[in-house]
Specification:
mainly alpha, 0% strand, elongated
């Protein structure tokens, strides 16, 4: 999962430059100065937006359901933070992919909501992955 998610982040980096203006251009298309100029990016169609949203919401839901189930059994993080890391990515998935619709069809400033929610989503993913990996590799349970 970590390799797949990391490759996805590299893709985002390549397509947006990890900038707010790059993300806006990715969904809204490039600004064209005159009629003879060819746009680098075209606005995403509704079909493309639906396909992106559909694939990511389904994929991320399964990723975070699986990861959250494993994370539930960790002994390092407890109480509030355990619940936070298990629930937050599911909420951020909806906000992230809802906000790209806002970027595309309402206003470019929705990109800041996209950035914050996706940063929380990926931070949660990597925190849970590191904690799970640490417990599996280094933490020894004493069995009597």
């Amino acid at each position: 999962l970590s390799v797949g998610v990391s490759v996805g982040l590299v893709f985002v980096s390549q397509t947006t430059g990890l900038s707010s203006s790059g993300a806006v251009e990715r969904f809204r298309g490039s600004d064209v100065e005159d009629e003879f100029e060819i746009a680098e990016q075209y606005p995403k169609s509704i079909n493309e937006m639906l396909m992106t949203t559909h694939n990511h919401i389904l994929g991320f839901s399964f990723i975070f359901l699986t990861l959250g189930t494993i994370f539930y059994f960790n002994s390092i993080v407890t109480k509030f933070w355990k619940s936070f890391f298990m629930i937050e990515p599911l909420i951020s998935t909806i906000i992230t992919f809802g906000s790209i619709w806002g970027v595309r069809f309402i206003h470019p400033d929705f990109v800041y909501l996209t950035i914050v929610s996706s940063a929380l989503l990926y931070l949660s993913f990597f925190v849970m992955s590191v904690i799970i990996s640490y417990e599996l590799i280094f933490k020894k349970n004493s069995v009597n």
